Amino acid sequence: MSTLAYEIVDVFTDRPFAGNPLAVVFGAEALAAEQLQAIAREFNLSETIFILPATEGAASYRARIFTPGRELPFAGHPSVGGAVTVVRRGLREPGQVVQECGAGLLPIEVTADGRAMLTGGTPTVGLELDPAVLLGIVGLGPEDYAGPPPRVAGCGLEFPYLSVRPDAVARAAVDPTAAALAGVPKVSVFAWDAAQRTVHARVFCPGVGVPEDPATGSAALGLGVWAVASGLLPAEGRSSYVVHQGLELHRPSLLECTVTATGGAAVGATVAGHVVSIGRGEITVPPFVG
Q: Which of 121, 208, 249, 272 can bridge 103 by disulfide, Cβ–Cβ 3.0-4.6 Å?
């Protein structure tokens, strides 16, 4: 085996050259983690997903997900893009597929027209954080802060969430040195429109080799968990919200989300969007350096 098949897809968009680009690689089950990491560095996209044979009976396939800097247990846009690509290539039928990954077994509903809905892992939410630290990391001041207070939240991959004024989102600029000193590898900065239940978000991940991500499904999932904990979404039942991301990178993305709450706490969340294929080919297998 000297080459691997791959496909490049744009995720959370219904048109090419928007959304978040993703490399989906097949046939890499014999490769070591160092080789997978080398391939992800070569593509140099925010994430590369490797579709591998499942090791658990309930799973449709196993996914390993890498940024240019490290492996992740889970990520949203690779999970959505990988599932649609698996179905589009005829490896699975439309309907529910189950992805095995570091966050467990995650169900993904895939339609024949290239749309998928991912159910996130177990919701988690932390204590309130000092907004001044996060504001400093993204180059904003106290006057830009909107509240409610920031918290770390997630559904398989956690982010700190910083709510700011609408005009501040475009001005945010991450300082990687400040982020490293504060021990904050990634942060979601956003403005929440309560009346429309829409969000204008930017997600910075300097600690994992992604200065800014055009569309972040895992962060969109956790945002609903944060919103329930912060009282912005109902404490009971299922609520929907929409995340707009990638505008500042000229890659507009649309993430359609739901969160289900019981007793004031999120118990589940979903994120959905379309996936557009833009190219495919083969990539050389890197040499193993042990």
A: 121
The one catalytic residue among 7, 47, 158, 212: 47
pLDDT (mean) for 249-260: 98
Is residue 289 situated within a structural domain?
A: no
- Asked whether residue 100 falls in the same domain as residue 176, the answer is no
Domain that holds residue 64: 3-120+275-284
The number of residues making up the chain comes to 290
The answer to whether the CB of 218 falls within 8 A of the CB of 120 is yes
pLDDT, tens digit, 9 for 90 and up, residues 151-185: 999 999 999 999 999 999 999 999 999 999 999 99
242 has which bridge partners?
Answer: 198, 256
d(CA 237, CA 262): 7
| Residue 175 domain-assigned (yes or no) | yes
Active site residue 7: no
